[in-house]
Amino acid sequence: xxxxxxxxxxxxxxxxxxxxxxxxxxxxxxxxxxxxxxxxxxxxxxxxxxxxxxxxxxxxxxxxxxxxxxxxxxxxxxxxxxxxxxxxxxxxxxxxxxxxxxxxxxxxxxxxxxxxxxxxxxxxxxxxxxxxxxxxxxxxxxxxxxxxxxxxxxxxxxxxxxxxxxxxxx
Length: 170
Description:
Layout: H1 2-22, H2 26-48, E1 53-54, E2 59-62, E3 67-70, E4 87-93, E5 97-103, E6 107-110, E7 122-126, E8 131-136, E9 140-146, E10 151-152, E11 164-168
Antiparallel strand pairs: 1-2, 2-3, 3-5, 4-5, 4-7, 6-11, 7-10, 8-9, 8-11
């Protein structure tokens, strides 16, 4: 019996610590945790795809804004073509799964300049004229999106083949 009496304060202390940990207010924990998760996402992306400049907690710019990468969609927006007006976008996953890259320049673009070669699985064209063709080595057109056909939710059978794009602006 004397052993049980001396152990009881230890169990009481452990129980109190656990109880306080469970009842800690959520807002006090949410701020730093969210910021840390954002920083981790940006850090991981830049480690694999170097050379970008962080614009905010969800976007990275490459080559002075030629390409903008958005890491995650807006809250509640999943599986929807959501390219902003004035850009054409390509997504790393089918059905517009993020990360998303967006370009607007006319002519040839080498996706390797931004580590986007062999990563395109869906696309959305949100410009007023023209179209963009996705190519394998500037010689084989894989698919296109444009004014007449703005979206391609799945680039199959050419997922992850594109390494160049050519935007026809007229």
